[in-house]
UniProtKB/TrEMBL annotation:
Record organism: Sphingomonas desiccabilis
Cross-referenced Gene3D superfamilies: Winged helix-like DNA-binding domain superfamily/Winged helix DNA-binding domain
Protein name: ArsR family transcriptional regulator
NCBIfam families for the chain: HTH_metalloreg
SUPFAM superfamilies, A to Z: Winged helix' DNA-binding domain
Pfam families the UniProt entry points to: HTH_20
Length: 103
């Protein structure tokens, strides 16, 4: 069974959160997760042509920044946005970034 590290949001520094949100691919993934309750890893991918290793790295960075939680459901890995927890730690940041992302 896969084990993922999900940090306490109190331990996540602002620069790590900003770094995770600065990449267009990761920001696209966060936007997709914000629009859905939960997504598999492949459904969260910003495009179909992204290599699995790159996708895994993006997901790892989003987990490290406290933005997502990944759980295993059978053979699938399911990602959810930790929106309320992230909002308590960094009030207004996620909404501001999502509202101002390029279309």
């Amino acid at each position: 069974m896969a084990r993922f590290t999900h940090p306490r949001l109190e331990d996540v520094p602002l620069d790590l959160a900003l770094h995770a949100l600065a990449d267009p691919n990761r920001l696209g993934m966060v936007a997709r997760l914000a629009a859905a309750e939960r997504l598999s890893c492949t459904d969260a991918a910003p495009c179909e042509s992204i290599p699995k290793s790159t996708l895994s790295n993006h997901l790892k960075l989003l987990r490290a920044a406290g933005l997502i939680e990944t759980t295993q459901a059978g053979r699938e890995m399911i990602n959810t946005l930790r929106r309320s927890e992230f909002e308590r730690r960094f009030p207004g940041l996620l909404d501001a970034v999502l509202a101002n992302r390029p279309a």
